[in-house]
Design goal:
With 264 residues, this protein is α/β, with parallel strands linked by helices. The chain has eight helices and ten strands. The strands form two sheets. A five-stranded mixed sheet has the order 3-2-1-4-5, sandwiched between helices. Strands 8-7-6-9-10 form a five-stranded mixed sheet, sandwiched between helices. Helix 1 packs across helix 2. The two termini are 20 Å apart.
Length: 264
């Protein structure tokens, strides 16, 4: 089985794939100080609840945009699963060209999303990931990664608004019933929701005009993708497992590093 680890700025997602389907997905708040033992106590208990044993894991792949978290995630794989992990980096075999000025600077999550989106949806694509940052990634018809856009995430914007304006409360995210708010909270919710819908539609329209590679399908991923897709007809498909699928596909394309089991 494959253990896939997607370490983002907000959460670390662990998932196990048995070669046919995902057998379980679990998330924990990102904390670069969390030790491999702490991860293990939490993760192994959840795996046991699903009837999964650590010795069933024969491969591990890690994608992270938090370099400080990588050390302990590697130790988790080596010490508790006895598997040397494959770490998603631009130098691996992705199966497509990375056509940007500095490929090594592209976040692993963005390349993983591009890999999975091309595999599952084909054609020129824009992949929008609603995470800590809201990213737009452009994928050519042949799968090449062409670059993209990075904007502040919705939760970052809400927190900034709350902290910078003394009289504005912290709000939850939801689709407002009307654009014109009748009180402070509904006005803020409208600004956040419709503001990001406008961001999506404005940036995608400009990407399509600038890229000039034909009609582009828009794929949304990340926790807030379903909500934002309700407000924009541009998002053709919501795929919550896009990054995990990218990890699985990357692990299948690249040879597994030599593990402690193999060296015995």
């Amino acid at each position: 089985m494959l253990l896939a680890v997607d370490a983002g700025n907000t959460n670390v997602v662990f998932a196990v794939h048995d070669g046919t389907e995902w057998r379980g997905r679990w998330r924990i708040a990102t904390d670069p100080q969390r030790t491999s033992d702490e991860y293990a106590v939490w993760l192994l208990a959840l795996m046991q609840h699903r009837g999964l044993r650590p010795d069933q894991v024969t491969r591990c792949v890690i994608g992270t945009v938090v370099p400080a978290a990588l050390y302990n995630l590697r130790r988790l794989s080596r010490e508790w699963f006895e598997v040397e992990p494959l770490v998603a980096r631009s130098v691996l075999d992705w199966g497509f060209d990375i056509r940007v000025d500095r490929p090594q600077e592209v976040g692993a999550d963005r390349l993983l999303n591009a890999l999975a989106a091309h595999q599952h949806y084909r054609g020129p694509l824009v992949v929008i990931d609603f995470g800590t940052a809201t990213t737009f990634d452009v994928v050519a018809g042949d799968g090449a990664y062409l670059g993209g856009v990075i904007a502040p995430g919705i939760n970052l914007s809400i927190e900034a608004l709350h902290h910078a304006a003394a009289r504005l409360p912290r709000i939850g995210i939801g689709r407002p019933q009307a654009v014109i708010g009748r009180d402070t909270v509904s006005a803020m919710q409208s600004g956040v929701f419709w503001g990001y819908v406008g961001l999506i539609e404005g940036i995608v329209t400009r990407i399509q005009a600038e890229a000039d590679i034909g009609p582009m399908k828009v794929i949304g991923t990340g926790g807030l993708a379903p909500l934002l897709a309700e407000g924009s007809t541009l998002i053709a498909q919501v795929d919550p497992d896009l990054t995990l699928e990218g990890l699985r596909l990357l692990a299948d394309r690249n040879p597994a590093p030599i593990s402690p089991r193999d060296s015995l």
